[in-house]
Design goal:
single chain, alpha/beta, 2 domains, nine-stranded mixed beta sheet, 24% helix, disordered N terminus
Length: 421
């Protein structure tokens, strides 16, 4: 097959859908969209989709935003401003901005692309890669692009292998022996299984590859359909499965690993429990997600901060961290930190204990605080002597306690608590 360039990525635009709130993260998304939520000590969730695209060779990207987008837009402007138009590189931020009609925001995932057709046209690309901006994983999209071209598909859908029990939370593919999708069902009670493997199913990752000409025509027709919800998973993909050629791409074929025995890592950190666990898992001796892999780095905005500092070395007042990740700018002053992840510029004071804590940037922990199994939102000031994680009933009076027993602490909750004490 003749191609203009050796890498299909150079003829592809990545369109990142980053407009969702992520309401299951509760108060963590009160002031920011889910893709802008912090992850892994210094990155944001959206950095994974953008870094995968960049590392795959894609230099034309757009990020569609909608819900409380300021934090996300500011992050992209600060951390992803290295693209140069003179080198044919772009990263456009596309807020829902009433471009079509004064009362019309993005109505669905497909409509977010429809409203920006003229911008995609201006990129002069052959392929469009649709990405969800709210998952944690490493993937070489060039592999998926090649499969799309070689199979002659109208759409190629990125798929995870999940158990039947897990599958009811996803859009699930039924495929034939060649990988062609024969049915697509959203969150089925009785999901179709993989050929020859009745214990597992193929679940949609929310990643799609299209020829742009094909997708453009499809979007124009969908926009005129009064019965459509203008959604890829709900409307466009089932339509192609029925009337065209949809092919499944297995994540295991393109997932990026730092060692052969590593699992195919993909996480939806969409609940407080999942968010806490994925962050705490990074403190393992050999974490399943390797943030130290320089061959496939996760790019982000890096603040200019001093190194972390640990001070005091007395009994019960020793600045220490064991099996933990501590980011730049942190001052661990006489605090015992265990199995925890501390983001940038966390300051903790003497006689305190942080155990299995995920502490977002710019948090201050007062003296004699004991915090375990917690997520602490950005900028929170923990008062002296606060104990969380030892008495769930007491914690529930003031804070958000998840189904898994993780306590979410925000400044608003602490302020409300202070009024009643």
């Amino acid at each position: 097959m003749e191609t203009r360039y050796s890498r299909l990525a150079s003829r592809t635009m990545a369109f990142v859908l980053a407009g969702g709130r992520g309401s299951r993260l509760k108060e963590l998304t009160d002031n920011r969209a889910k893709p802008a939520v912090y992850f892994g000590g210094k990155t944001r969730i959206v950095d994974f989709a953008l870094s995968n695209a960049l590392n795959s060779g894609i230099r034309k990207m757009a990020v569609a935003t909608q819900y409380k987008a300021h934090s996300l837009i500011r992050h992209c402007q600060r951390g992803w401003n290295f693209f140069r138009a003179e080198r044919n590189e772009y990263l456009d931020i596309l807020p829902a901005s009433q471009r079509v009609a004064e009362n019309k925001w993005y109505l669905g995932t497909a409509d977010a692309v429809t409203q920006n057709i003229d911008i995609v046209d201006s990129y002069d690309v052959d392929y469009v890669l649709i990405l969800a901006g709210d998952h944690i994983y490493k993937m070489d999209y060039e592999v998926m692009l090649r499969q799309h071209v070689e199979s002659g598909a109208d759409v190629t859908v990125g798929c995870l292998t999940v158990t039947r029990a897990e599958a009811s939370a996803f859009g699930v593919m039924a495929v034939d022996e060649t990988g062609r999708i024969t049915d697509f069902v959203e969150k089925p009670a009785d999901p179709p299984t993989m050929p020859g493997d009745p214990a597992h199913c193929l679940a949609s990752m929310g990643i799609y590859v299209f020829d742009w000409k094909f997708l453009r025509d499809l979007l124009m027709r969908d926009a005129e359909d009064p019965n459509s919800h203008h959604d890829f998973g709900g409307d466009l993909i089932p339509q192609i499965v029925k009337n065209g050629k949809a092919v499944a791409h297995r994540f295991t074929d393109s997932c990026v690993k730092d060692r052969p025995d590593a699992p195919a890592y993909w996480r939806d950190v969409g609940t407080v429990d999942a968010f806490w666990k994925a962050n705490i898992d990074l403190t393992d001796f050999t974490p399943d997600l390797n943030l130290w892999d320089r061959n496939w780095p996760i790019w982000t905005y890096s603040e200019s901060v001093p190194p972390a500092k640990f001070i005091h070395d007395e009994e019960d007042r020793r600045g220490s961290a064991v099996s933990s990740m501590v980011s730049g700018g942190c001052i661990i002053s006489g605090t015992e930190v265990r199995n925890s992840l501390l983001f940038t510029m966390v300051h903790s004071n003497s006689y305190s204990v942080l155990d299995h804590a995920v502490v977002l940037p710019y948090v201050t922990v007062g003296r004699h605080a004991r915090l375990s199994n917690v997520v602490i939102d950005r900028g929170v000031v923990i008062p002296q002597g606060l104990v969380v994680g030892e008495d769930p009933d007491e914690d529930r009076k003031w804070f958000r306690v998840s189904e898994g027993g993780i306590t979410l602490i925000t400044q608003k909750m602490l302020d409300e608590r202070a009024k009643h004490l």
